[in-house]
Write a structure and sequence with these properties.
With about 100 residues, the chain is an all-alpha fold. The protein is built from three helices and no strands. Helix 1 runs parallel beside helix 2 (about 55-65), helix 1 packs antiparallel against helix 3 (about 70-95) and helix 2 (about 55-65) packs antiparallel against helix 3. The two termini are about 20 Å apart. It is found in: Cell membrane. This is ABC transporter permease subunit. Belongs to the binding-protein-dependent transport system permease family.
């Protein structure tokens, strides 16, 4: 490595070892951002009521939960859970695919 440009050293040695953990942390934070937006919209302080949001759909469905229309709250809740799960599984798959120790 003596005589190589520092940028080349970073691209060859540092970037492959850092890329996996950074992508996993980014996808976990994306899942947390989705949950945070849904939570704030559920509480009424997130997106405006005219914008579609899973949290707003869950809040509206919560009003009809005990009147026998249970699917209005169940389907957005399942969608939110599956969306966050899919983002986290994507991050785990990317970590495994980009792990230089497994190549």
């Amino acid at each position: 490595m003596i005589g190589l440009h520092p940028l080349l050293i970073m691209v060859r040695h540092v970037l492959p070892n850092v890329l996996g953990p950074v992508l996993v942390i980014a996808t976990i934070n994306l899942g947390l951002a989705i949950l945070t937006e849904a939570m704030l919209s559920f509480l009424g302080v997130g997106m405006p009521p005219t914008e579609p949001s899973l949290g707003t759909l869950i809040r509206i469905g919560n009003e009809f939960l005990f009147s026998g229309i249970w699917w209005v709250v169940i389907f957005p809740s399942i969608t939110l859970a599956l969306l966050v799960l899919a983002v986290n599984l994507l991050g785990d798959w990317l970590r495994d695919a980009l792990n230089p120790k497994l190549r």
